[in-house]
Amino acid sequence: MTDSQHRAPLVVVSGPSGVGKTTVVERLIEGAHGRLRRAITATTRKARPHEQDARDYHFWSEDEFRKAIDDELMLEWAVVFGQDFYGTPRSEVDPHLARGVGVVLVIDVQGAARVRELGVPHLSVFINPPNIEELEARLRGRGDTDETRIQRRLATAREELARAGEFDHRIVNRDLDEAVSELDRLIRAVSG
Ligand code: ADP
Ligand code: 5GP
Question: Is 17 near ligand 2, meaning CB less than 6 Å away?
Answer without folding.
Answer: yes
